[in-house]
# Entry
Amino acid sequence: MTQSMPEQNIKLMRLMKQAIDENLLEAGFHPLLQTRFPDRKSYLLNGNLKTASGQMIPYKSLRKLAAVTDMGAALDRWMVNTALQTLKRMHLEQPEANIIVPQSISSLHNPEYPRWLDRQRTRQDVSTRGLIISFRLSQIAKNLKLANECIAALHRLDINTMIDSFTTHPAALKILKAMGCRYMSAAPALLKEKDDTIKRII
# Structure
């Protein structure tokens, strides 16, 4: 697989693997506005990679690289563990704070993922209160059966979920209802729609 990859990507892949293994990724927390619970502090987690030359590789690029190098699950695990430890500290001052954690299709389609997450909170003696696991609508639509099994299992563990990049596609509302996710975030295209369309969906 790596033979067809650009040399730069191979170097970044090795660097990312080392950063994940040694917990060297830099976590970033972006404040978000909640329309449903505006008084609660909500943050979107991402992980950035700083190269030896000082260049910062953003999470969006890392996520794409991870998807083509079979490292999506490893990056997901780092994100979840970082969120759990951060929530433990954050809840001392902000008991209602939420951290939204984007996850890849690797985790969504892995039947062991919910059990793994449950073991992490037990092993680390942390609560998943305030943890929101986020999957993109396009990921969910690729295999509704596997997605439903994963999301339902998370809900049974009292872990909240979010559908990210929500659109006006006719099937989107059906998917939201079928998955039972408590949260959704709108895709940029949705925010450009007319107010009545946005209100109908949100």
User: Anything to note?
Assistant: The first strand starts at residue 26 and ends at 32.
